[in-house]
Specification:
Two copies of one chain form a homodimer.
Chain A lengths: L6 H14 L7 H8 L3 H14 L2 E5 L2 E4 L1 H7 L4 H20 L2 E7 L5 E7 L13 E2 L5 H8 L3 H10 L13 H14 L2 E4 L6 E9 L5 E10 L8 H20 L10
Antiparallel strand pairs in A: 1-2, 3-4, 3-8, 4-5, 6-7, 7-8
Chain B binds a DNA duplex through helix 3.
Chain lengths: 260, 260
DNA sequence: AACGCTGATCTCATAATCCGAGAACGCAGA
DNA sequence: TCTGCGTTCTCGGATTATGAGATCAGCGTT
């Protein structure tokens, strides 16, 4: 049998969810009902959470998330979490395929922010965590751009320019727009020596459960070591890893038990 | 007997504390030891937290705070928490003393940011939540300035100027420095019609358990209704309320049980 | 290739912990 | 004073958590 779950902890988080939901302050009985708990149990749990500083009881019918919760997340951010969650997987990709692997997100300026990487021996890509590079010319960037809203994408394409970094760089807004549509269609991007000569790269999206692209995962290799024929297999592998990352990040097991 | 605490929840938070502590990733056995838990128990709790998304197991010896924790605190901030925790107390102050009551913090520009207020009927003070006013001329501001480090205080005093808002406003850096020293000494500030004519105000610090001043609490009244003789009694009341707020915010009951 | 290490996972009987209905309480407004 | 709402408490019964140790899995070493 799988490891049994501590039910009290799940209930405590159900209550915390209620408090974090839009309505700022809720009463104990209403939270109890929403979480399928008896009033007595909800009270005990809230009293415990309050003693721990995770919840503050500010008055009748008023509970709120406490300072302790803020302290616990003070050193965390989506980026650092993504980095630590993906590092082991990046290492495995490098080990099994010989590629340099990257994870990146798109910032508000439409630049690609590199979150983490695992380099192979022949790595030539000058990425360090936190560095920002142009989006239009890399596999990661194109995957991330492909999921922009139509408006945002049009703005990006109109803003240009897209200077050529190699002979194969996509440099016209029209061609880039077609490329992004193709990427949305097949759910992965290929950078065929568009950023560096002789460097091929495959990138796939990392998805939020709601379908949004929240990050991208890529594997790069010298074009002498990654033939076009091998690309599809690499895509399959990366897609699996991307799904694993998504699962790891968003796993959420707390179906509120409906009381009789 | 007082409400019994759900022990599992306390243990879960002890583990979360380990993860939030400086060292980013720790192994299960080391966390178990640090929290005084058996390996089996720690494992069960971590598995539960992982299923809830509160913790991510990124690899052997690597656990980290999960996305769920970020989601729970997304809508919270110290300021909103302070506001909801103090509102009921501000109301009570207004009810029992007839004063207008305020809570405020100092921002990075040394301006007083008003967090919450409860106005009496004759209120003339134009404060709304989030508004920022000068610090040198109010009770709240002076309490907050008094706790600046010597360097920061000197910088503030040197930066000036301090334009007079009434005939009693403290306008020279020397006098303000002396006033702040006196406030540190007696642990409360009085604004004797320094900001508005005929408006007296008493302010006390709200303290972090480590002694730092993190916010201030004030009560203001028309000088015809608050004689200088009544000030000391008001201070006593406010001090009690400030201590109650501090307790409410920082309560922390999770002594890790030392295993035999 | 077998070894030893570290960390993670599982098993199971024991007993400690948690549960829930309902009653009582405190407070505020009608 | 009465009513309503939200909170707090009580207590026996049983679900639930506990912990030592065996097992498993991965990795770097001898």
């Amino acid at each position: 049998m799988a490891t049994p779950e501590i039910k009290s902890v799940g209930k405590a988080f159900a209550l915390l969810d209620c408090l974090a939901a839009e309505d700022d302050c809720v009463s104990l009985p209403s939270m109890a009902k929403r979480c399928g708990l008896s009033v007595a149990t909800a009270h005990r749990l809230l009293a415990t959470l309050e003693a721990l500083g995770a919840v503050v009881h500010t008055g009748p019918g008023q509970y709120a998330i406490g300072l302790r919760m803020l302290d616990l997340t003070r050193r965390s951010s989506f980026e650092t979490l993504l980095a630590s969650a993906t590092m082991p997987i990046l290492s495995r990709i490098t080990r099994t395929t010989g590629s340099t692997a990257h994870v990146a997100v798109l910032d508000s300026e439409r630049m690609v922010t590199y979150i983490a990487r695992s380099a192979n021996r022949a790595n030539r890509i000058p990425t360090t965590p936190g560095i920002k590079l142009e989006a239009y010319c890399s596999g990661l960037g194109k995957v991330l751009l492909a999921d922009l809203s139509t408006d945002d994408r049009d703005t990006y394409l109109a803003d240009g320019p897209f200077p050529p970094l190699t002979a194969r760089t996509i440099i016209t807004p029209e061609a880039l727009d077609r490329e992004l549509a193709a990427i949305r269609d097949r759910r992965f991007a290929v950078d065929d020596c568009e950023m560096f000569d002789n460097l091929r790269c495959v990138a796939v999206p990392i998805l939020h459960p709601d379908g949004r692209v929240i990050a991208a995962l890529s594997a790069s290799q010298d074009s002498t070591e990654l033939s076009r024929a091998q690309i599809q297999e690499l895509v399959t592998q990366l897609t699996g890893h991307a799904a694993a990352i998504s699962t790891k990040l968003f796993r959420r097991g707390s179906a509120p038990r409906a009381a009789h």
